[in-house]
Amino acid sequence: MVSISSTTGPGQPRPTVVNPEQRTQSVPVKEMNIPPTPISAFILMGQTGVGKSSFIKLLDGKDLHGQEPEVSEEPESCTQIPTIYMTKLKNKPILLLDTPGFDDSARQNIDILADIVSNLHLFTLRSQEIKVRGVIFLYSIGENRFSGSQAKTLEILKGLCGEEGMGHVIVGTTMWDQNSKEFPKQIAREKRFRDKYWKGVHKAVRLFEDDESAASQILLDLLDLPPVLLLVQKEMMQPPHTLENTTVGKATMPNGYREIEELKRRADAQAEAYERELKRRKADFEEKEKDMRKIAKDLLLKTEEENRRLDRERLEREAESERQYEQVRQEFNDQMKKIADDADKREVLKREEEASQRREAARNQREEREKHDREDEERRQQDFEAETQKQKEKSEVVIAQLVEELERLETALSKMTATPDLTRFEVTINAVVEAFGFHPIFIKAVNKSEKVIRETIIIITDQIRMFGGGI
Ligand SMILES: Nc1nc2c(ncn2[C@@H]2O[C@H](COP(=O)(O)OP(=O)(O)OP(=O)(O)O)[C@@H](O)[C@H]2O)c(=O)[nH]1
Ligand SMILES: [Mg+2]
């Protein structure tokens, strides 16, 4: 495939659909070694597996990298994208545009067609260098039925070429079984198809397997014709230069495709709407998030303030509690102290009471004792008095005896008075007087004490003896 964008200039028409993936894999024409004289270009078309790549390979076609086309026996498509190959025919360079086969998939057909048209449009733009000489439409004669995809392929071919262009188409029938009983059937089929489907083509030729000369002859036959501008090439030169506005584009873009395009357009519009809505919601969300953050921040600040206030109140309450506790404790201590004091006082009073009781008891005891003592004293006094009385009585008896004795002594003494030494008698009397303070004569009258009397008796007796008197 050829990249259109690399060759189109300002104001130049552009095809509409070019598969970008495929474009990157294609070989840009400007990079190919194209000779100064216009090069003839041929387009290979036909269903998958009919032998398009084999045809090019047979003619020794090589791509930009010198690679020959890939050929596959698998039923799946081998050639995936339109690819340009170069070769020589009678020593003149030619371009062969290999194309994938069309099938029932509108989407895939459109993509393939878009690539083919891109290349054809490029050929148009470079018509001084490249001239389309015709289309080789290969058809497998082995197919006994004209399938839907074959019909679609033929329709695309006609749409591409237009009536004039179909005159530059050669149908090459492949897959002949010359040595088989099928061969006659194939010939009959060829005739039937030629009459029914291939009307208007330049010719239909048989391409037996590996028949290089037949392949070359096809190109030579086309080269005998003048260069042609296929219908799609002409249409693509007209504004708006879009595939949808070409005959083949309209034919190939069935309702399904348009619906797909419409759906795609709607989907894109919806995606854009979703994008816008998403942005709006995102902005809305961000706005709300901002608000929420602000609210959360305010709430946080309020909560912190509230917490601080609660802390303050708690501290105040704790301080108040502490103060009350201290007060209660103080009151309690005071009460305890008071109770203790009262208890002490009571204890003191009690002790005083007990002391008083003890004193009272002691006084009572003492009084009792004194009473007893008094009574004892009285008894003793009485006893003493009785004893005294008894002694007195006894003493009186003794005294009486002593008085008698004394009187006898006095008598004796008086008798002694007749003695010369009266002085001594007087000394005795004086001694008695001095000793007792009274004269012995008055003893009886003064004191009848037994002791005095006895001592008086002793003194007198001693005096008498001293003076030699007889007692
Ligand atoms: N019997 C027979 N086999 C052929 C003929 N031409 C090609 N083949 C074989 O058919 C198979 C497919 O050939 P390709 O050249 O890859 O077919 P194609 O048209 O390029 O297929 P796509 O690239 O898939 O579109 C290969 O195995 C070829 O060898 C023929 O004329 N007769
Ligand atoms: Mg192929």
Helix content: 55-70%
Q: Which structural class do the helices and strands define?
A: alpha/beta
- Low-confidence parts lasting 5 or more residues at pLDDT below 50? 1-27, 418-422
Residue share in β-strands: 5-15%
Secondary structure tally: strands: 6
**Helical segment tally?**
12
Radius of gyration: 86 Å
Arrangement of strands in the largest sheet: 2-3-1-4-5-6
- What coarse outline follows from CA principal-axis ratios? rod-shaped
The helix-strand sequence is: HEHEEHEHEHEHHHHHHH
Bound small-molecule species: guanosine-5'-triphosphate, magnesium ion
Biased composition (Polar residues): 1-10
Region (Disordered): 1-25, 337-392
Domain G: 43-112
InterPro entries: GTP-bd (IPR006073), P-loop_NTPase (IPR027417)
Task: Summarize the structure in short.
The chain has 471 residues and is α/β, with parallel strands linked by helices. The chain has 12 helices and 6 strands.
What key phrases describe this protein's structure?
alpha/beta, GTP-bd, rod-shaped, 61% helix, 471 residues, disordered N terminus, 6-stranded mixed sheet, binds magnesium ion
